[in-house]
Write a sequence for this structure.
């Protein structure tokens, strides 16, 4: 699923490949018991703010086609 999102042709303020970093962080939290630091949480939120709307808009556009 992440690969499909990173292959979208959209303009964002941050690279779409950062979605892999979010996946790794989530995996470490869920399966390895990692407790994220405040800076990791802020980093994840910055990525979300930069990517969420453009990705969501493009996915909706592709679904409607």
């Amino acid at each position: 699923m992440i690969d499909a999102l990173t292959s979208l042709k959209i303009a964002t303020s941050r690279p779409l490949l950062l979605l892999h970093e979010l996946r790794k962080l989530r995996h470490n939290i869920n399966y390895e018991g990692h407790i994220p630091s405040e800076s990791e949480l802020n980093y994840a939120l910055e990525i979300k703010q930069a990517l969420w709307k453009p990705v969501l808009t493009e996915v909706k556009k592709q679904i409607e086609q």
In short: DSSP finds three helices and no strands in the chain.
